[in-house]
Amino acid sequence: MAKSDKKKRHQNGKKYTTKKNRNVIAQQIRSTKSQTNAIFSLTSSFNPNPKTLGPFSDRQRILVVGDGDFSFSLSLAVFLGGKNLVATCYDSKLELKEKYSSALLNCDALETAGAQVHFDVNATCLDKEKWLHVAQRFDAIVFNFPHLGGSTEADVANNQKLLRGFFNSTRQYLHPTRGQVLVSLRNTLFYNRWKIQEQAAVNGFQLKRTEVFDASIYAGYEPQRTHPASFRGEPPSTNGAHYFIFSLDKSIIEMDSGQKSFQPSENVEQARGSATKQGVLETKMAAMSTKMTCQPCGLTFRDVKKYNGHINSAKHAKKVKALKKKH
Q1: Residue 258 DSSP SS3
Q2: 102, 143, 233, 262: which is deepest, by most CB within 10 A?
Q3: How far, in Å, CA of 76 to CA of 129, rounded?
Q4: Which one-letter DSSP state was computed for residue 83?
Q5: How many angstroms separate the Cα of 299 from the Cα of each of 10, 109, 204, 292, 295?
Q6: Contacts 24+ apart (CB under 8 A), 264-271
Q7: Whole-angstrom distance, CA of residue 301 vs CA of residue 290
Q8: Residue 80 in contact with residue 53, Cβ under 8 Å?
Q9: What is the pLDDT of residues 135-187, one digit of tens each?
Q10: Dist. CA 163–CA 44, nearest whole Å
């Protein structure tokens, strides 16, 4: 009997401890939300003038895709406000909870700030998202450190395909005149082999500029790995990272004038062979399906490298300068 009573007391003690822990966690969440509300209230009332954070402004309608634990989106919301912000991640809500401990707290804070939060969003298939409307286009679409994992030749080809799919997917949701797509990548040999400018060009984008990605200005931002369980130790580095900032290339004339939106050739998706050859072949075939025209010079190109080389040439600059003087 004594043993039975002791066992019951032990079980009751465990239940009490579990309940106590839950209460502590709930209290922490309430405290975090309270602090978040105070921060948002302070930032929204402190300065009525336009606010900027890196390349972003509170006057922009911003879509963030592939945000691992939503900490980047939250850093934007804290400084710029959340009413014009839509934050998304690739994982489902359950997967997110299992992978990143603070992710759901960040989601709560984002919603408190007035931002929209969406899970299970594939950045290469945005047209499948029913909540997205072409009528409400974005001024900035952001994809920070896209990476499918791995470091082999096959992974290079896969990440090139990821970028092509992303650029193609964003076109119809980007504001045609002031819209820009921002992709952050580290400046290393591996990432440089992705040839981001080529992947953008075959989908009708041109590079406006690059700028240093300074993670320190995004308070609370914590870069995350695609598969955190596979790694131990420090999070991925952002040293030497840059933002590649693209806009729609208005000088591109599509082969099919009746086409409503820019689509790479279907042959691109049908290319087969080894992983390395596939990535190269897809890029070349997509480039062949696009007719790129420099309107000031009256020249047409089918090769992305030649087109980019011409745009950056002294001949092109001289022609543009002469045309500006005439007007």
Answers
A1: coil
A2: 143
A3: 23
A4: T
A5: 83, 51, 17, 8, 7
A6: 264/164, 264/168, 264/202, 264/203, 264/289, 264/290, 265/289, 268/164
A7: 9
A8: yes
A9: 789 999 999 999 987 888 999 999 999 999 999 999 999 999 999 999 999 99
A10: 35
Tell me the C-alpha distance between 147 and 68, whole Å.
11
**Is residue 73 over pLDDT 90?**
yes
Neighbours of 217 (CB within 10 A): 11
Hey, what are 12's tokens? 């009751």
Long-range contacts of 251-257 (CB under 8 A, 24+ apart): 251/206, 251/292, 251/293, 251/294, 251/295, 252/204, 252/290, 252/291, 252/292, 252/293, 253/291, 253/292, 253/293, 254/204, 254/290, 254/291, 255/289, 255/290, 255/291
Q: How far is CA 3 from CA 6, 9, 17, in A?
A: 5, 10, 21
Which tokens is 222 given?
């914590």
| Paired tokens of 107 | 């989601």
Q: Is the whole model's pTM more than 0.70, yes or no? A: no
Residue carrying the six token digits 């209290």: 27
Q: How far is CA 61 from the centre of its chain?
A: 14
What is the average pLDDT value for the chain, to the nearest integer? 76
Contact by Cβ (8 Å): 227, 188: no
Amino acid in the structure at residue 234: E
Cβ–Cβ < 8 Å for 202, 283: yes
Listed in sequence order, the residues at least 6 apart from 147 whose beta carbon sits closer than 8 Å to its beta carbon are: 159, 226
